[in-house]
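Dear support,

I submitted the protein below through the web form. The confirmation email said the job was done, but the results page showed an empty box. After a refresh the structure appeared. I'm attaching both so you can tell me whether what I see now is the final result or a partial one.
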Amino acid sequence: MLYVSKSLHLNEYVAGVTILTICNGISEIAANFRQTGSIDTELIYNQYLGTSLFEMAFIGALIVLRRRFYVFPEFFLPSIITLIGASTLLQILMHQEQISFAQNLILLAIYIVYLIAIMLTSIIVRSQIEQSSSKSLERAVMLSMELEIRTRDGRSVDIEATQAAGFVGTHPNQQLLAQFVNRLRPFLWQELEVSNGWMRSAKLFVAPVQTLITLLVPKVNYELPMHGWSKLMFVVNVVLFPLFCVLVISGTDYSYHKMELVFATSVMTAVLVFLVTRTDRKPPGYIGIALFALFGTVFVSLLIVFEIGAMLGTLAVVMNISKTSLGITLLPWANCWIDVNTSLELTRRGVSKIGFAACLAGPLFNILIALFIVFSTRMIQFESLTIEVREGASGPTCSAYLVITSVLILLTLVFSKFQARACLGFMLFFTYGMFLLNTVLSELEIIHAYGTDHNADDND
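What the results page shows now:
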């Protein structure tokens, strides 16, 4: 993700709003459709609200508590204001229990206008950087949001130096096998020797999985020589990954004819790649390989999310937990575990703003784009331009907490002069904890969920 963002000259905020949010959002859309098994507007609506709260409150708190940073109001205010307005508008539409085609288009239009506003802001800020004095404080502050590649321990990476191969190739296939072996190994032996017993066991445990993923998806990393390029490894990726995708998508219904066709196409492509590339330099258009790696990572992560969701679904049946409560509490943990790991990894590398921007843009993607897709699918399914929708018993509660949390983030950052400090993280943890407590008490019927009818029990 960092390679694509840096290659496209995106700053941290734009990278978080676009690339990270879309990658995470696509995974969550597929996972929610898979877990619900149908276009149930009540269930999916509650799941997306629960996921949005988890992203904004829990993941946002982890990022802020991990590293303190300055939040640029030029990018933060459009995100938080749009989120508050979109959440309120959507709850009003859901409360009417009907969504028309025009109203559905409004959701899409809001997200498009939001993205245009963020991109225009980025262009304006970049022009201000170019026009400002080279020694001015304003320029230094604005440059701090530019994407800088760092290692996990915070050291800056010289991407020009790592672009070199480290050897001079006298022929296109020099050190072909050695390069392949270096990319295939999941860790260095020196790392294993200096690790403690628990970390050594963990590295050995995940090594087979990492090796398998490396054979399927190319490594693209600024820290590696030639930014991860390995001629033979990429040839293997080109052959194996399409076969893996067809096998997974087809399931038990795959046909040998389809597999033979995909295999033949992959082999021809791999032979072409082998003939036109070298081992001592990256091929032209390496960003295309980076996009391939990004797609492959999302696809593999999605499979893991499916399995975790299936296990949680079984657990919910055993513990007699309703689907709605499951969707707003446990399933967000399953659907967003990739988001958590990605955000923490980015924070370790000193680019916290990417993860924090995604924590605000992710809920917008869920309640605007994801629900737009759900409503459009239902309209096609019923061949109608107006569909019936249900907010459910937990819908108003989730929507209220989403708006309240957004307002609290806005107020906290305004009064702290847009410094994301530990107090913001603790506040987000407390808010999400209160939401979980409210959900559990409602599930146990100790309290009434917000928006439900209290008179029914009184009449009994």
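Response: this is the final, complete result; the empty box was a page-load delay. The chain has one domain: 2-163+289-459.
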